[in-house]
Design a protein that fits this description.
Blueprint (H helix, E strand, L loop, with lengths): L3 E4 L6 E2 L3 H14 L15 H12 L6 H23 L2 E2 L3 H11 L4 E3 L4 H10 L9 E2 L7 H16 L8 E5 L2 H9 L3 E5 L6 H6 L4 E3 L5 H9 L1
Parallel strand pairs: 1-4, 1-6, 4-5, 6-7, 7-8
Antiparallel strand pairs: 2-3
Helix pairs in contact: 1-3, 2-3, 3-5, 4-9, 6-7
């Protein structure tokens, strides 16, 4: 059996201190003249595509097909994002480098299950020197439903590792109940990580098979991931 391990990014691996939201607001203002366009829009566990679509619909700026408006917004966001990553600083969350080091010794590779656009994920993780450590995964470019990107991520990661894409062999790490729900719909298990806006108790209540306060206890997290 090949264990397929997939990580969420934001508030699971890293904290960008609001760089993404600021870049989205700046991009939308540049395109449409609307300030603070994402105010009141929830980001927790959602895909970038879903967020972009909601913002566009809220402000009624799609002058044609929604697909074109989303594509324009996405591109503008990706142009703005790198400078805000630098300005905001951000941090790698506790235990992440040590866990990735240990996991590399135990499995042939691991991946991502993130609502970020693939290029956005590369920018975020690349900023912290982590992007090259991941073998593939699922991203938010083509999905508004998180479970669909998790399922796609399992397939992509398995293909990259040359193993069977068996959802029951996958475990997804994430900081929100939506991560847990998406993992289960895709047929995987979930490890909740309490470094976001949800506590261990809340993540367990949402159905996570496991939950930890953070990823600092390498031995314990490895036991869960490989068990």
């Amino acid at each position: 059996m090949a264990r397929l391990v997939l990580f969420d990014i934001d508030l699971t691996l890293i904290h960008t201190k609001g760089a993404g939201r600021t870049a989205m607001d700046t991009a939308f203002e540049r395109l449409h003249g609307v300030t603070k366009a994402t105010a009141g829009v929830s980001f927790d566990g959602r895909t970038d595509r879903a967020i972009f679509s909601e913002v566009i619909e809220r402000h009624g700026v799609a002058e044609g097909a929604i697909e074109r408006a989303v594509a324009e917004f996405s591109e503008a966001y990706l142009e703005e994002f790198p400078r805000f990553l630098v300005e905001k600083g951000g941090e790698v969350l506790p235990g992440v480098p040590a866990l990735l080091d240990a996991l590399e010794r135990e499995v042939p590779g691991f991946g991502l299950a993130t609502g970020n656009l693939r290029r956005g994920a590369a920018a975020k993780l690349g900023h912290f020197g982590l992007w090259e450590r991941f073998s593939g995964g699922g991203f938010g470019d083509g999905y508004t439903v998180r479970a669909e990107l998790v399922a796609a991520g399992i397939v992509e990661l398995a293909g990259a590792l040359g193993v069977a894409a068996v959802p029951g062999d996958a475990i997804v790490l994430g900081d929100t109940p939506l991560d847990v729900e998406a993992a289960h719909i895709a047929g995987a298990r979930a490890l909740g990580v309490g470094t976001g806006r949800f506590s261990v108790a809340e993540l367990l209540a949402s159905g996570a098979e496991f939950a930890v306060d953070d990823l600092a206890d390498t031995e314990r997290v490895l036991e869960i991931l490989l068990g």
